[in-house]
Design a protein that fits this description.
2 copies of one chain form a homodimer. The radius of gyration of chain A is 20 Å and the shape is elongated. Chain A is an all-alpha fold. The first copy, chain A, has 10 helices and no strands. Chain A has 2 domains: 53 residues, Arc Repressor Mutant, subunit A (Orthogonal Bundle); 168 residues, Tetracycline Repressor, domain 2 (Orthogonal Bundle). Chains A and B meet through helix 6, helix 7, helix 8, helix 9 and helix 10 of A and helix 6, helix 7, helix 8, helix 9 and helix 10 of B. The first copy, chain A, binds a DNA duplex (30 and 30 nucleotides) through helix 1, helix 2 and helix 3. Chains A, B: InterPro entries: Homeodomain-like_sf, HTH-type_TetR-like_transc_reg, HTH_TetR, MT1864/Rv1816-like_C, Tet_transcr_reg_TetR-rel_C_sf.
Chain lengths: 228, 228
DNA sequence: ACTCGAACGAGAGCACCGCTCTCGTCGAGA
DNA sequence: TCTCGACGAGAGCGGTGCTCTCGTTCGAGT
């Protein structure tokens, strides 16, 4: 059971993180100032260091929270009773919607890493949640016979254990070629969202919604989902 | 003809930009310090402002130079005499190689935009070079009958004029569905490179070279290139 | 119940940053 | 030759991350 001191410490820690998240949403990660956060919560800047050893640690907290937030949004959007194609497009839309609602947080998660900053191991589980949802859709589709597989096999040394475990595990309809296509679809999804968010498609795409719908359908075809 | 004064001014401008590029390669964009650049070229920091009105203008110069550099690399890698599939994979590899050789520059170009920074119009032509090469490959393939098109048509309001002009123009084998797939392949290419560079694929992909080769082949299939 | 040490908040200070202003110099065109 | 603009240097302003020191306060062990 936590003592009173630990409780108020935890409260203050989340209060600082919340203020930091508000500032992140306003000015972005690179302009996030620990001193301004301290001002917002009414502390001396030096006092914040009792709770976060450095600005990078504060950012790490925001990164983990961000991965958890987009992971939760994606999980909530995945209706496991729906057919794979619909689940796939729902998950894609959830990613895009979350990114558009939280552009600075998205940039912090999937944009250029802050220079000199290396993600601690703590971020890995939270960061995996989106990929795990995709893997679950893939696995369910394979079990339901809704996945067009090559029926090939493993290509040793190509993929890591994490990818194999998440993507289909040992199901015969999911070989390494399918896994590569799934990773490609995942990368393409985030590439598309990033391009839209970072303005790389300005002048080329007029109707972002329609374009994105076509892209998700194309990616579903690539992964191998097929209608019942 | 430029006066001596203009000449030495231009020289000093590029010398500052070169020093900034060196520092960019070392510490990244967010940590790029105008004062440090000034120290490297042996000036007072205030003197640099005679050549670049602000740090953002210096970054803009680096961005334009970066787009030109990756554009030149891609153009050099495109052998117009080769079959479309080979040209496509060569261009993809050129993008990846340039990105791995200049990670901080790549992050500056295709990562999160520096907060508060909006790309001036000057950057657009340089930024378009890579896309133009892709469009040229697509158009050549269509003219040579090496492109599997839907034979559909335009979808008004979906794509911008820039995309239509660069991607296939009016060739019947290139309709808007093909253009969407080309844009998707373009986004997927940069999504893949970004994920590799920013560490999002750590643990999932062991052999980056083989994975990338498979990805480019898959994307070529997606775009519709077919062997002779 | 008391004590002692750890946790805490505040303040001053260091080195650095982007940027502005002023001032002396120097050189090219009128 | 004179003049005015371009130039470089320096000081300075407000901001940053981070450290150190100093009282205070609170809680756990005796």
């Amino acid at each position: 059971m936590p003592t009173a001191r630990e409780r108020v410490r935890a409260e203050l820690t989340t209060e600082i993180a919340d203020a930091a998240r508000r500032q992140l949403a306003e000015v972005g990660a690179a302009a996030l100032s620990l001193r301004a956060v301290a001002r917002e919560v009414g502390m001396a800047s030096s006092a914040v260091y009792r709770y976060f050893p450095s600005r990078d640690d504060l950012l790490t907290r925001l990164i983990i929270d961000g991965y958890d937030a987009i992971g939760a949004a994606v999980e909530a959007a995945d209706d496991t009773a729906a057919p794979p194609e619909e689940r796939w497009s729902a998950v894609c839309s959830a990613v895009r919607d979350w990114a558009r609602a939280h552009p600075h947080e998205y940039a912090l998660l999937y944009g250029s890493p802050v220079p000199g900053y290396v993600a601690p191991r703590d971020t890995v589980p939270a960061a995996s949640r989106v990929g795990i949802v995709l893997g679950r859709i893939l696995g369910d589709a394979a079990r339901a016979g809704r996945l067009t597989g090559d029926g090939g096999g493993r290509e040793p040394g190509l993929l890591g254990d994490a990818a194999v475990e998440v993507l289909g595990q040992g199901h015969p309809a999911v070989d390494d070629a399918v896994r590569v296509r799934a990773l490609l679809a995942w990368s393409a999804l985030f590439g598309t969202v990033s391009f839209e968010l970072f303005g790389q498609l300005v002048g080329s795409v007029e109707d972002g919604d329609r374009y994105f719908a076509l892209v998700t359908a194309e990616l579903a075809r690539l992964v191998g989902f097929r209608p019942a």
